[in-house]
Amino acid sequence: MSVSVLSPTGPLGSVSGLLQVVTLLSLVLLLLKAAQLYLRRQWLLKALKDFPSPPSHWLFGHKHEFQKDQELQHFLKWVEKFPCACPRWLWGSNFAFQVYDPDYAKVILGRPDPKSHEPYRFLVPWIGYGLLLLNGQTWFQHRQMLTPAFHYDILKTYVRIMADSVQIMLDKWEKLITQDPYVEFFEHVSLMTLDTIMKCAFSYQGSIQLDRNSHSYIQAVGNLNKLICSRLRNAFYQSDFIYRLTPDGRLSHYACQVAHQHTEQVIKLRKADLQKEGEMEKIRRKRHLDFLDILLCAKMENGHSLSDQNLKAEVDTFMFEGHDTTASGISWILYALAMHPKHQQACREEIQSLLGDGAFITWDHLNRMPYTTMCIKEALRIYPPVPNISRVLSKPITFPDGRSLPKGIRVTLNIYSLHHNPKVWSNPEVFDPSRFAPGSAQHSHAFLPFSAGSRNCIGKQFAMNELKVAVALTLLRFELSLDPTRLPIPVAEIVLKSMNGIHLHLKKLL
C-alpha cells in the first residue's frame, strides 16, 4: 500500500515536524535571552541604587527626554538635580553612567581601566586599533614609541608651518568676503588643520587647502562623526550585520573607504620617498623624527614591531584626531570671541603689541600672550572639543563620597557637563577668562579639554600651539562678529560640532 504525501509519516510530515522543533527551540532561546536581559537589568538597577536618575522606560530608557538638537542643554538640567553622576538609560539594559564631577573624574582617570568596548567599537572600521582604541601593554608600547614625535624641540619647528597654513586660510577668506562677508568657518578651519597635520606629522609637500580632492576626506570625516553617533542611539543598528544592510551602513562603509584612500596615499608617498638613495640614512641622522618617520622606521628596522595594519591604524587615528578636534577648538574659540567683542579686542591689542603686523610668529611668542591664552582656555571650557570619553571598570570603584560601583560598569566622563557644572564653575554659561588668570585656583580635574592621567591627549601641546597661532593671526587680519540669523547649535558628536555650522561675519582690518 503506498504512503500518501499527506501522511504525517511522509516527507511533508517530516518537514513540518522539523519546523515545529525549530520554532520551539527559537522560542526557548528567545525566552532565555529575555530572561538574561531581565536579570542583567535587575543587577544593574541594584548596582546603581545609590545613583538616582529621572524615571526611565524599561525598553526605551530616557529616549523620550532627549531631542537631538537639545541633548547637551537637557543634560545640564540633570547635572543640577543629580550630584556628581547619574545613569542615562538608552534602551533595555544598555546605559551609560555619566560622570561630571572633578573628584569622580580624578578617581576614574587615575586608574588603568580600558576604553569601553561600547561605543568605541564603532570607530574600528574607520581608524582601526591605533593609540585611541588600544588598551593594556600594546597601548603602552605604542604610546612610548610615539611620544618622541611630540618632543619640545620638534614642536618648535612646527610653528612656522602652522602659521603658513593659517595664512593660506586667511587669504581665502579675504577673497570670499568681497562677495559675502558671512563665512561658514568649520570646513575652512578643518582644511587648514588637515593641511597643518599633513605637513607637520606626515612630511607632506604641497597644500591640502588648495587641493580639491582633500574636500572629500573632510566630508567623509564629517559624515562618519554623524553616522557613528546616530548608530549609538539606535538599538537596531547595534548589529554589524543589520547595520551593513541599511542606507546609513552603506554610507558609513563608503565614507571609511574615502578616509582610508586618503591615509593610504599619505603612507604610499612617504614610503616612496624613503626608497630614494640616502633618504633613510638621512632620517636616522635626524635628532627628532616626525610622527610618520617613527612609524615607518619602526616597521623597516623590525618587521615584527609594527604590522602594516598597526601602521595604518595609527595614521588613520592621528589623521582624524590631529585635525578634527583642533578644528573644533579653533572654530568655537573664534565664535566665542565674536560673541564677546570686548574680549576679542583685548586679545587683538595684546597680539598687536607682541607681533606688530603678524608677518612673523615664533615659539617664543606663544608664551607671551597671557590674556589670549586665558580666552582660549575659557572657550575650551564652554566648548570642549571632545565632549565625552568612556571607560569600563576593570575592578570595583569607590568614589570620595563613599558611593561605589562594581566591576564591568561602563563609565562615561561627560566633559561638556563637567565644564558646565554650576557646583564646579560659578555662572558656568558666562564667558569669563579671569577663571584662568595666573594664580587662580581650580580643581586639578575641573578643566579637561585634553583629558588627564596616563591616557591624556598625546598631542596636547601641539594642539595648544596651533590654537594660539590660528587665533592670533586671525585677529590681526579680521574683526569677527556674529551672524544673528544663524547662531550655532552645539551637538555632541565624536567631536563637538554645530548642527547648522558656525557662521561668522568677517571685516578686514586696515
From TrEMBL:
Pfam families tied to this protein: p450 (PF00067)
InterPro entries hit by this protein: Cyt_P450, Cyt_P450_CS, Cyt_P450_E_grp-I, Cyt_P450_sf, Cytochrome_P450_Monoox
Matching CDD domains: CYP4B-like (cd20678)
Recorded GO CC terms: endoplasmic reticulum membrane
Keywords: Endoplasmic reticulum, Heme, Iron, Membrane, Metal-binding, Monooxygenase, Oxidoreductase, Transmembrane, Transmembrane helix
Cofactor requirement: heme
Residue ranges of the TM segments: 12-32, 120-140
Presence of keyword Transmembrane helix: yes
Stored Gene3D superfamilies: Cytochrome P450
Residues holding heme: 457
Subcellular location: Endoplasmic reticulum membrane
A molecular-function term among this protein's GO annotations: iron ion binding
Biological process, per Gene Ontology: lipid metabolic process
Similarity annotation: Belongs to the cytochrome P450 family.
Protein name listed in UniProt: Cytochrome P450 4A11-like
Species in which this protein is naturally found: Trichechus manatus latirostris
